[in-house]
Amino acid sequence: MQTTRDFSHYVKDLGAGLNHIDLAVEGVSCAGCMSKIERGLSALPDVTMARVNLTDRRVALEWKQGMLDPARFIDRLAELGYKAYPFETESAEAREAEQSRFLLRCLGVAAFATMNVMMLSIPVWSGNGSDMLPEQRDFFHWLSALVALPAAAYAGQPFFRSALRALSTRNVNMDVPISIGVTLALGMSVVETINHAEHAYFDAAIMLLTFLLVGRVLDQNMRRRTRAVAGNLAALKAETATKFVGPDEVSQVPVAAIHAGDIVLLRPGERCAVDGTVIEGRSEIDQSLITGETLYVPAEQGTPVYAGSLNISGTLRVKVSAASEGTLLSEISRLLDNALQARSRYMRLADRASRLYAPVVHATALLTVIGWVLMGASWHDAIVTGVAVLIITCPCALGLAIPTVQTVASGAMFSSGVLLNAGDAIERLAEADRIIFDKTGTLTLPELEVVNAAEIPAEIFALAGRLALSSHHPLAAAVAESARAKSPLLGAIEEPGQGVRARLGDVELRLGRPSFCGAEQLAMPTANLDPEASVVAFSRGDDKYLFSVRQALRPDAEAIMAALKDRGIAVEILSGDREPAVAAAARALGVAEWRAGVTPAEKIARIEELKHRGDKVMMVGDGMNDAPSLAAAHVSMSPISAAHLSQATADLVFLGRPLAPVLAAIDYARKALQLMRQNLWLAVGYNVLAVPLAISGMVTPLIAAAAMSGSSILVMVNALRARSVAVRRS
Amino acid sequence: MEVLVILVPLALGLGLAGLLAFLWSLKNGQYEDLDGAAWRAISDDD
Prior knowledge:
The structure holds 2 protein chains of 2 kinds. Chain A is of the alpha+beta class. Chain A is built from 24 helices and 27 strands. Chain A has a 7-stranded mixed beta sheet with strand order 15-27-26-25-16-23-24, sandwiched between helices. Chain A has a 6-stranded antiparallel beta sheet with strand order 7-6-8-14-9-12, with no helix packed on it. Chain A has a 6-stranded antiparallel beta sheet with strand order 17-22-21-20-19-18, with helices on both faces.
């Protein structure tokens, strides 16, 4: 059966005979790559535009409809040395991008207004001390109002909206005092201008918005970038399914284009990309990504298969199901729903700070007004002083204290291979004092490996690897991969379910089940020694060798466990796998607390028990069976190879083979939390100095402007230190 | 001081022109790829 690749799902029709496609590209990191790709793609006939986006690692292409097949672009990029795959912008990502543009527009407006109002304010400040006429001062104040009022109305939207949202749910967030402060400052300034007063605070109000918007834009850019990278990684997994488009005709289509009721072909060695039921064929499947169980499960007509299952031996036809009908999945989704609902509304540090801050500040302002009235000041003077208190305490530094640290810390995490799904994950991660690891795919690598390679003569290993290239069986693939075999042996014959054989000169080579190679006796002790491993036998004539194939532990797992303990974090393993397999891993890693054969419900029960005890539990897992416990834990993390559901549920995702990013993320998070607290205290300290001035009525617009920008810059500079953490790299 | 009648609107007008230019460039997608833009400036392709 000849298969074709069909990317029409991703092609957009721009009209006027032009088509458009977006590709995610791996490994674009420099200017050289950029021009190489653009030139390489533009050289194809009919291509009208090829433009690389270096920030998002993507290529946008436009071409004349007709001759050119989009698969050609992928091939062309492969020739140039880049792996690429088309992708569809997710609605979440599009929303982030739109929000990012909106915040930039607000920042532009606010910055323009700040600069121009400042230009109008400085003459007033210097003129007040010399010979400025009251009419001139009023003129400048009115001009300031003309610029500042519409600008604040536009640029303040992000804060006003969020404050209203919080108030409507009877909550207080940082945007409430911001909105009140800005509105009162502007209102009072207008009244003062009408009364020909000496001071107006238009500049302070709009400058406050500018500084805060800088924080928001940084925060948004961090989120947008994370989303873009996550989108690329998802696209580059290039998940396709072989779909039947006719009775005997198949086509390779992206998973996004598969619908319920379609019938897909699952060959040996392929990972299933959809949920469905087997309608024809007989095989064994590896469901370790779903259940954590490393033993293969038989599959025949009627067996449900889930996305992420690996087909081992026979070819299957699978009918794609609409919803998750299997008992296992519905059980998991029920647990997941419960866990998400119960996920206690975590109070972020910023919210906790503003919950304390808003009442204190507003009470201080009110007391100031009452105090001045009692001391015989006019209502007008008392209110002006009260508003000055609100302006000077307006949480400029407080509003920047946390987002700036988050931005810097997430940037640092990003470069050590950790992506953040949730902004407040940093705070929760810093608090974690107990880590629960899943075993399969988390502590171990998701791919199979030959673990006893050192015991086998290099020449034999290389030969076995070349023979293994002729089989699709995942165990054979692992042998070929470990041997780094490149050239298959000629005339190799695969006997399904048994192994492969070939002749080299006058000796017969066999690779496969021990019985296929006549090595059953030899295999017994090896199999008993390491119950987790699958044994693959290789024979050359009468010489017989055994390969022990299994998921190896991540290379640095043991060192990381020790480092975690050094940091006072308790480590525990909860796995759905069999006891001997888990015990072996726990022994190798020096982890004393472990449980095997744990169901998803039992994992949650264990987490609840620990939570009850007051532990802050971090869950690290990859399987679909881990998703509910990922949601139930205080903070959670998944490897990039995890099941979709788990990855979407986890707060953080880490890339690559080593486990080091887990440790790095914890180090960065702890440092970041420390800096966030420091920044909050800096902001408090500034208020302690400035508020008495404001209460005593000595604050002028000049002092307000200097204090506000000074404290904001201090907080931003302090946030930069979040980058400097001594991280162990392996 | 009559000169202010000309200078102040002029200053505000220039500022506004800057703002409009920024909004146009934002809409035009010029902030979509800041890393790439930095390199394109020194590439000698076109």
